[in-house]
Amino acid sequence: MAMIRTIIVDDEPLARDVLREYLGADEDFEIVAECANGFEAVRAVSEHDPDVLFLDIQMPKLDGFEVLELLDRSPVVVFVTAYDEYALRAFEVHALDYLLKPFSEERFRAVTQRIKTQIQQPRAAVAPLGSALRHKPLQRIVVRGEDGTIQVIAAARVDYVEADDDAIVIATGGTKIRKQQSIGDLSGELDPDRFVRIHRSYLLNIERVDKIELYAKDSRVAILRDGTRLPVSRSGYARLKELL
Amino acid sequence: MTFDRIRVGAYALGAWMAVAILLSLALITRPEVPLGKAVLAAFPPSLLLGVIALAARYPCRAMPLRKTPFSRVLSTHIGTAAAAAGLWVVVWKATPNLITSNLPLIFGVGVVIYDSAVTVHYLTLELEASRIAEDAALRYQVLAREAELKAFKAQVDPHFLFNSLNAVASLCGSRPGDAREMAQLMADFFRLTLRLSSRERITLAEEIDLVSRYLAIEKVRFGARLRTNINIDTAAGEFPVPPLLLQPLVENAVRHGIASVVDGGTIDIAANANDGVLHIRIENPADPDRPQPRGESIGLQNARGRLAAISNGRASLRTEEAEGKYRVEIELPSSC
Known about the structure:
The structure holds 2 protein chains of 2 kinds. Chain A is an alpha/beta fold. Chain A has helices at 13-24, 38-48, 64-70, 87-92, 105-120, 183-189, 234-243, and strands at residues 4-9, 29-35, 52-55, 76-81, 97-100, 140-144, 150-154, 160-164, 167-172, 175-179, 195-199, 202-205, 209-216, 219-224, 229-232. In chain A, the strands form 4 sheets. Chain A has a 5-stranded parallel sheet with strand order 2-1-3-4-5, sandwiched between helices. Chain A has a 5-stranded antiparallel sheet with strand order 10-9-8-12-11. In chain A, strands 13-14-15 form a 3-stranded antiparallel sheet. Chain B folds into 2 domains: 2-135, no CATH class; 175-333, Heat Shock Protein 90. Chain B is 65% helix and 14% strand. In chain B, β6 and β7 form a beta hairpin.
């Protein structure tokens, strides 16, 4: 059997140490990279195409779930965290296992055994890692550029989102960032008390609205604090009125 | 409460009914008095007296002794007593005259009954008021104790414990000596937490000692990502503060601050005392794009609540975030 190519992701050096120590005792595993944050993890996964990812959840910049969302490959994922409240979400993104810190060596061996079984005869599709179901409204939008750069935008800082063919353009503080996603999908993920679909092509952060003006019969325009003018459809106006 | 009042009213009317029955019985012992006449002579005046005695509670309740000028209490009750006794005389005159026709005497009896009722009402009202005050004091005590307990629970974050234990477990494999040291740091920190939290007030220097021990543990976990700079002037160090006031705030600075920044940074803690007011500032780097739940963290809410409770609103806690820095500032007057 070929070596199982493994990447360890944790922002605490000592947490990486114990994983390295345990994995080092099993000759089937090969550690191809160690990462201290989500950015490094996304880069390392596309570079090394690992079989397994040991992934912390609470990390700076990108959390473990956001890392998965940005991956274009689907390694076997084992979450390693001190927080047990993410277990359900971990199950929904098809993680193979969920290690609670601190864990015993015995528990760790059980996990490596499951990894071996999974890799030899893959069972349930481990595929749709990216399409994580979400329990709470999205607080950050992560965008991966064509050059591999990653941007994280806090939802609160988004002014509005504009549909552009099959992609969206996110306007935040004067800059515009393009992301491959449908406006309908994003609209479903963001906080419905804050973001309202004012038009087929526009999703608006209502905290940015300065005023709504009648533009022509049955057609309105939303004027934002920075002077931007966005069209408001009739059904969009009804939704907007409900929130304001 | 209402049910109680109805019951007390029923008892009082019952007692006056008994008076009326006794009076009737006394009257029919005279040979010339038939039963009907005795009842007619005894019941209406007795019942009216009962109603008057009960009704006297209303002016008593409207004019609590401690809050009403004595002259007003006196004039009102003299007026009401006269009116009540007058009404009683009228009813007395309308009933068969079997006992006495000395109307000034009857009037006097009415006044005496009214006055006795007023005395009883004031006594029971006073008892009721003191019971309510006692209840409120007790409820406040329970609330204060609950708040303390919550503050203590919130301060011992289980994830801090799990992550630290994970660090110990990791060190056991590679550097057993450091593992021992980490275990000792944790034991010292938790012991000090228990000891300080049982006291009403500690000095700021003691609180800073606790905070430093906490930070020493986090430094083992975060390594070079966590740096600290603590600056407490001598006068500030002697200032009394409630225990574990700062610890949860410093914990936030690590969890939501340092932990959100790839390269970490420095937690700055500074305190000085000027003109009897303690100023404390805690500053840490924070990623403006970190996930932020709506509203304030429990640690911050608790600190705010405790400061308000001990200072009657004279202490202040302000937070501010700008240019990648998060800052908490506390002002606490010395008399708290």
